[in-house]
Specification:
Elements (H helix, E strand, L loop, with lengths): L15 H14 L9 H6 L14 E6 L9 H10 L17 E7 L6 E7 L7 H5 L5 E3 L5 E3 L9 H5 L6 E2 L18 E2 L5 H4 L6 H5 L5 E5 L6 H8 L2 E2 L11 E4 L2
Parallel strand pairs: 1-10
Antiparallel strand pairs: 1-8, 2-3, 4-5, 6-7, 9-10
Length: 255
């Protein structure tokens, strides 16, 4: 059973033993945060303090692989530009090996059918990354979005090993020209945040907005009247690695 950790630091305090572990490990690994940048706020407390995160919603994304065009990379480009992790044209930020979303080609060995689809953090209800995190830095908000608290991430990379989707990246170098709503730090792990800053502002994630083929649908999985719920009732959808029982927030149609 994964830890259900709330969205504010006050709601998931680190006990004394963990604080000592953090200090010792941070010193050993040399993890460094960007100077003058509050790394936690941009990720986990994007929603105003007076509007608490609620479990009444479960945010999710439905990917229609039948609409994903071969060679299309619009969702990847949009994510990199929005969150500052890729070397977008005219973007002064350095390029790292980070990749919050990527397109992959999959082939059914039995039928021979092939699909091109975007792969990102699947925002599991039972996230393995949170289960193995020794500091509580990897956590799941009540509305289903899985995030990393970079203030207490020690860069151990256990979460990277635990993620069955290889959806997490490690920041190896110092980052300049930080984006306030998507801060990053050397020595920390990062992944798709489902554009939490946009979600908390009642906007779609950047990848969804950028998809000209309308292959991505974002919405509340708990709302029967939401477009994503309607489509999931009408069409057969699948989880990637459903055998793991993670109950992912990202679902795929057409596989």
């Amino acid at each position: 059973m994964s830890k259900q950790i709330d969205s504010t630091l006050a709601d998931h305090p680190v006990d004394g033993a963990r604080r000592d572990f953090i200090k010792q490990s941070a010193a050993a690994t040399g993890a460094a945060l960007a100077s003058g940048v509050l790394l936690y706020t941009g990720d986990a407390t994007a929603k105003p303090i007076d509007e608490p995160i609620s479990a009444r919603q479960r945010w999710g994304i439905l990917v229609d692989t039948t609409k994903c065009a071969d060679g299309c990379n619009d969702c990847v480009t949009a994510c990199g530009k929005e969150n500052g992790w890729s070397n977008v044209e005219h973007d002064p930020r350095p390029k790292t090996d980070a990749q919050w979303i990527r397109t992959v080609e999959i082939r059914n060995k039995l039928t021979g059918s092939e699909h091109s689809l975007p792969l990102m953090c699947q925002h599991c209800e039972n996230p393995p990354c949170a289960d193995v995190c020794p500091t509580g830095a990897s956590f799941r908000r009540e509305d289903g979005i899985v995030l990393v608290d970079k203030h207490i991430c020690i860069g151990c990379r256990y979460c990277m090993m635990a993620c069955p989707y290889k959806a997490r990246s490690f920041v190896h170098e110092a980052i300049e020209n930080q984006i306030p709503y998507a801060p990053r730090g050397k020595g920390t792990v990062e992944s798709c945040t489902m554009c939490v800053h946009r979600v908390d502002d009642d906007r779609d994630p950047a990848c969804v907005e950028a998809c000209n083929h309308k292959a991505l649908v974002f919405g509340d999985l708990k709302d029967p009247n939401s477009e994503i719920s309607k489509q999931m009732r009408t069409h057969t959808t699948k989880e990637l690695r459903a055998d793991l029982g993670l109950n992912t927030g990202v679902r795929y149609k057409g596989l």
